[in-house]
Amino acid sequence: MIDIPKDLLISQCTDPIDSIVTEVYGTTFKDLNDPIFFQERAILCPTNEDVDVVNKYMLDQLKGEERIYLSSDSIDPADLNSRDDSVFTPDFLNSIKTSGLPNHYLRLRIGTPVMLIRNIDPNDGLCNGTRLQIIQLANHILQAKVITGTRVGEKVWLHRLLLSPTDSKLQGNFH
Question: Is 140 in contact with 158 (CB distance < 8 Å)?
Fold first, then answer.
């Protein structure tokens, strides 16, 4: 059993997600586009399902333009591991929720703080765990401002990637 100090507990609440978000970010985070505000604040969740719940709540609070990005629902035909591609239907691919692969449905707004879940360019500081804030939404590319690491304040472009799952039960390159 783990003892959590009383000063770290949020008690007497009717909505635990609202209470956690308010405790960490206050009530004005939805009006802030200042990356410094998000540098030293984060909510750590024990499961990806909890991450989804907190992310949905916070995005519902943010103002401004919103875009939905969907995965492209296919496996690289050149991939030798996907010989029986009839198993990999779009519905199946859309339902995959595993470590190392983003969900099929990605909802973003200008000002959203995000964290990279892949090494994109480690030599340039864009690696797993780098935190950024979205500043521009386009069809297949995002512009973000780096808010942690050695490149704080720099603007970077993030584009779609060909992904290979880290889960050995799922083999193939995903588009």
Answer: no
Model confidence over 32-56: pLDDT tens digits? 666 678 888 889 988 888 999 999 9
For residues 158 and 168, the answer to whether their CB atoms sit within 8 Å is no
List the chain domain ranges: 6-159
Ramachandran angles phi, psi of 114, nearest 5°: -135, 165
Nearest CA-CA partner of 32 in 111, 150, 119, 102: 111
pLDDT of residue 9: 78
In this prediction, residue 56 carries a pLDDT of: 95
Question: DSSP labels for 128-160?
Answer: TT-EEEEEEE-SSEEEEEE-SGGGTT-EEEEE-
Strand partners, 144: 134, 156
Residues in CB range of 92: below 8 A, 6 or more apart? none
Asked if 76 and 140 touch (Cβ cutoff 8 Å), the reply is no
pLDDT confidence of residue 76:
62
Closest CA to 51 of 103, 129, 127: 103
pLDDT digits (tens, 9 = 90+) for 154-173: 999 998 877 666 655 555 55
